Amino acid sequence: MTKWNVIHKVRYPPFEHQRWKASSVPIVEERLNVNLTGEQIQNRYPEFRIESEEGWLLERTFESKDGTKWSGEPLQIIDDTEFVNLVYQQRSGWYIIPNNLHSVARRLINFAVILLLATLTYLFIEPILSVIGIPSLGTQSIRLGLLDYPILTIIVGPFLLMPLLLRMIANFLDLKKQQEYFKNPVKSPIMELESTIRSGQPLRGKCIIPERRDDWKSVSIHWHVGTLPPSRSALVELSGRTLGQQPPVGLSTPLPHHWEEGLDDGTAGGEDAPMERQDIPGGVFLRPMRFSEEGGGQVLEEEGDFELTPPEMIWPGSVNSELLRVHWEIVVKIKRQNKMPLLWVMPIRVEFPTSKIQLQHLRVNDSRTEHFYIGKR
Question: I need a surface site. Which of 18, 66, 68, 169 has the fewest CB within 10 A?
Answer without folding.
Answer: 66
